[in-house]
Write a structure and sequence with these properties.
Helix content of chain A: 25-40%
Largest sheet of chain B: 9 strands, mixed
Oligomer: heterodimer
Number of helices of chain B: 5
Strand content of chain B: 35-45%
Helix content of chain B: 10-25%
Structural class of chain B: mainly beta
Number of strands of chain B: 18
Largest sheet of chain A: 6 strands, mixed
Number of domains of chain B: 2
Shape of chain B: globular
Bound molecules: adenosine-5'-diphosphate, magnesium ion
Strand content of chain A: 25-35%
Number of helices of chain A: 8
Order of helices and strands of chain A: EEEHEEHEEHHEHEHEEEHH
Shape of chain A: globular
Strand order of the largest sheet of chain B: 1-4-6-8-10-12-14-16-18
Radius of gyration of chain B: 20 Å
Strand order of the largest sheet of chain A: 6-9-10-3-11-12
CATH class of the domain at 3-88 and 162-247 in chain A: Alpha Beta
Number of strands of chain A: 12
CATH superfamily of the domain at 3-88 and 162-247 in chain A: P-loop containing nucleotide triphosphate hydrolases
Structural class of chain A: alpha/beta
Order of helices and strands of chain B: HEEHEEEEEEEEEEEEEEEEHHH
Radius of gyration of chain A: 18 Å
Chain lengths: 248, 376
């Protein structure tokens, strides 16, 4: 049982205030959707939690099972059980997918996986996400299509088994088939009931495949409305306009 | 015209076997402005040659059975045929060497293994060397030059690649920390000849290596790769010159380096000339430097001089920069500690080139040396 607690989080980028007091608690077994218009600060929230050096915390707290995440380095946060599926996964030349995944799994588990076991897990994971096995030898994200990058993010999530996963617009840029494959991956991951998911999205489409327990509307750097799945339906029909006007 | 704009095509005007034709460099010359002359131990001003101290660089050859290896005197007709010294230290080496090593790969021979020349330095003074590798028409060979030990060494190496022949060379500058090495590698490519050079410079206090390529007929294809890792205080300089004087030849240059520590200094000069008669030339040159710490400096100067309107392709690129935060962030976000992330990224950056080394034991050795540098 894990809990991610975000308390009054304030974040600036290059002296520009972006997050203006975010409060949110995600427990294992729960799926929270954060929905908001472009530029509202959703990625800023995700990156700030993960510890990206460009984002400066100006106030508030982020706790994972009571421990202060903001005190930890990026890799320590990941090893503590936090995972961020990135909106724009970075290409890293010369680092192969298999080498990268083995290093990541070794770091997170604290010991190197048995080679055969790892090879099997990797193969199963790739099969389930319809990733061509040849990708294991490719350079990390290099020349991957948008959809391939996103599937690869979900593969990492499934291999690393975090306590809390933050998925930043994993659905954007996917066609319907890829969206289904990726959603199935997320559903497999949360089926254990031992993990919490913070699903950041611009569109309601993915919520038809990945049913959220809670929906939060994000605008102007904070949560402006919270509710159950029905809130997504309201956004579907009415859009973000009323919120962007209110926050402007 | 500033220093940088002096036409490349005039660089050879100075070529000579006569040491007296070259003034002692002062450091203001375009060819010497990056090199710390005070650390050359007198290779450039005659002091090393007139000194009492003696140095040795022993040449041991483990040859493929198909090749012949000879140690010859200065008067051997095969020595000095493919090139003329183009600077003072090259001319000094030419005038001071006593014995040359001549490796001959007979016509149509395909060597069954690579030939290794181990050059081991010792002693206090300077040493001079000359090597000729002659690959006769349609022959194929792989040569490894392995420089080790401590030396103050100036040498010239000629690679003469015959019609339709194929020569691959790996040159490892694996010197001890105090070594000074100034070297010229000249490849002369005949019709349809293929030349692959891979330079690895990790060791030495000062290494200045000048690989050059010339073509005597159409169809030549040269690929020059290099990796270097510069530590605190080291000066590692690579000066490439590809002179396209024949139609329909190719060249590709890709040198990459990583630098770490105070006063780590890398210099890369990439000169490519496409002369009027060299129609259909296809050339690309690239240099990239990864600067891992404060206090390190990379100078990277590509020069492409195109004198014909009919090229198949001509380009160059040079980029020097810090480790990309986004790369390390991505790896760290997956739990990989910073030091390990940095190691993976640098290994990836240089490894993409190192993978081109086809001799497994050499490739593994270079990866091993890279790991050792990264662990420092
Ligand atoms: N690196 C950055 N430099 C400057 N401004 C940024 C940077 N990243 C984000 N911003 C600004 O922060 C705001 C929120 O961006 P972001 O968190 O990416 O929003 P969202 O993910 O909701 O689209 C935007 O106004 C954006 O322009
Ligand atoms: Mg975003």
């Amino acid at each position: 049982m894990s809990t991610l607690e975000i308390r009054d989080l304030q974040v600036a980028v290059e002296d520009k205030e972006i997050l203006r007091g975010v409060n949110l608690t995600v427990k294992s077994g729960e799926t929270h959707a954060i929905m908001g218009p472009n530029g509202s600060g959703k990625s800023t929230l995700a990156y700030a939690i993960a510890g990206h050096p460009k984002y400066t915390i100006t106030g508030g707290q982020v706790l994972l099972d009571g421990a202060d995440l903001l005190e930890l380095s990026v890799d320590e946060r990941a090893r503590a059980g936090l995972f961020l599926a990135m909106q724009y996964p970075v290409e890293v030349p010369g680092v192969s997918v298999s080498n990268f995944l083995r290093s990541a799994v070794t770091a997170v588990r604290g010991e190197a996986p048995k080679l055969r076991e790892f090879a099997k897990d990797l193969k199963n994971g790739m099969d389930a996400l319809s990733i061509d096995p040849a990708f294991a030898q490719r350079n990390l994200n290099e020349g991957f299509s948008g959809g391939e990058k996103k599937r690869h993010e979900i593969l990492q999530m499934e291999l690393l088994k975090p306590k809390i996963a933050v998925l930043d617009e994993t659905d954007s840029g996917l066609d319907v088939d890829a969206l289904r494959v990726v959603s199935e991956g997320i559903n497999r991951f949360r089926a254990s009931g031992e993990t919490g998911v913070l699903l950041i999205t611009h569109y309601t489409r993915i919520l038809r495949y990945v049913k959220p327990d809670f929906v939060h509307v994000f605008a102007g750097g904070r949560i402006v409305e919270a509710g159950g799945p029905e809130l997504a339906d309201k956004l579907e029909s009415e859009g973000y306009e009323q919120y962007t006007k209110a926050s402007a | 015209m500033g220093l940088n704009e002096k036409p490349l095509s005039t660089l050879h005007e100075k070529a000579s076997y006569d040491l007296a034709d070259f003034e002692v460099p002062t450091g203001r010359e375009e060819a010497w402005r990056f090199t710390p002359l005070s650390r050359l131990k007198g290779l450039h001003n005659g002091e090393a040659a007139s000194s009492e101290a003696v140095g040795h660089v022993r040449v041991d050859v483990d040859a493929a059975p198909e090749v012949t290896v000879e140690t010859v005197g200065r008067d051997d007709a095969r020595v000095g045929k493919s090139f003329v010294p183009g600077d003072r230290v090259s001319a000094q080496a030419w005038n001071s060497f006593e014995k040359a090593t001549v490796i001959t790969v007979p016509r149509e021979a395909v060597t069954s293994k690579h030939t290794v020349l181990t050059l081991t330095g010792s002693g206090d003074g300077a040493a001079y060397g000359h090597i000729v590798v002659k690959v006769e028409p349609l022959a194929e060979a792989v040569i490894v030059l392995d420089h080790k030990g401590s030396a103050v060494y100036a040498d010239n190496i000629e690679f003469i690649v015959g019609d339709g022949a194929n020569l691959k060379v790996v040159s490892l500058q694996d010197w001890d920390d105090d070594a000074v090495h100034v070297s010229h590698h000249h490849a002369q490519l005949a019709k349809d000849a293929t030349f692959r050079s891979f330079v690895v410079t990790f060791g030495g206090d000062l290494v200045r290596l000048s690989p050059s390529v010339s073509y005597t007929a159409p169809g030549g294809d040269a690929d020059l790769s290099g990796v270097y890792f510069v530590d605190a205080g080291q000066h590692l300089e690579h000066r490439l010159l590809v002179d396209h004087s024949q139609p329909n030849c190719k060249s590709n240059v890709d040198y990459r380096g990583a630098l770490q520590g105070q006063d780590a200094h890398a210099v890369w000069i990439g000169d490519v000339i496409i002369r009027v008669e060299a129609e259909g030339t296809d050339t690309y040159e690239l240099n990239r430097n990864l600067i891992l710490t404060d206090g390190a400096r990379a100078d990277s100067v590509p020069n492409l001089e195109i004198l014909t309107g009919e090229v198949a392709g001509a380009g160059h690129a040079s980029a020097s920069g810090r480790l990309d935060d986004e790369h390390t962030f991505y790896l760290q976000a997956r739990g990989i500690p910073y030091d390990e992330a940095r190691r993976l990224v640098v290994r990836g950056f240089l490894g993409q080139l190192i993978e081109k080394i086809q001799i497994e034991e050499i490739r593994e050795r270079v990866f091993g040396a890279l790991e050792a540098e990264l662990a420092r």
